[in-house]
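Whether sequence alone determines local backbone shape is best considered at the level of individual chains. When preparing material for the folding task, we compiled for one chain both its residues and its backbone structure tokens. The sequence in question and its structure tokens are set out directly beneath this paragraph.
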Amino acid sequence: MTTSPGTLVVIMVVAGLLPFALVMLTSFVKMAVVLSIVRSAMGTPQVPPNSVITGLALVLSFVVMAPVAYEVGDHLKNAEKVFSDGSVSEIFEVVSKASEPVKRFLKTHAQPQHLEEFSQMLNEASDEEGPSWKVLVPAFVISQLHEAFRMGFVIFLPFLVLDMLIASVLLSLGMHMLSPTTISLPFKLLLFVFADGWTLIGANLLGTYL
């Protein structure tokens, strides 16, 4: 067991940033937003519950991020001596090299126009090493939200059309007191089940990364 002060500092910093990194530097943002939109489109705000939506988003994110995590782990495994006996500067140099797979992932899945916009906004010229973290992180998160809402719009349309169809039928029958959303709910669930909706959504979400 090491008692190196530098190691303890790095461990404390990593532990503090881990929840942030898990949410903002992975595919979790897109997964969680798309799954939440699906739930809203079906008109079941409490089913599946938030814990299930979050858990499914985490599972899908783990599948996507596994190769990146393995690369980071290999870098850190080869630097065990530095963590036990190295100085703070050496430890941060190792951490910087180990974070390169994460930077590649962020750059790959950040849209070029968002990278360009944030580079201009922050007055940062592009170089051989690529965009810095202060450009990559916001560009990646904005790109993920953009793609999530675009996917959510496509998913929402069939349910919206079904709601409008049910509402038109009820109005033509003079059933003004019945709520169209209440009547359309079982039909939306039936449509989602027959289309194998969860499989399609999960496969398409994974397909945008793999």
Observations:
- The chain is about 80% helix and 0% strand.
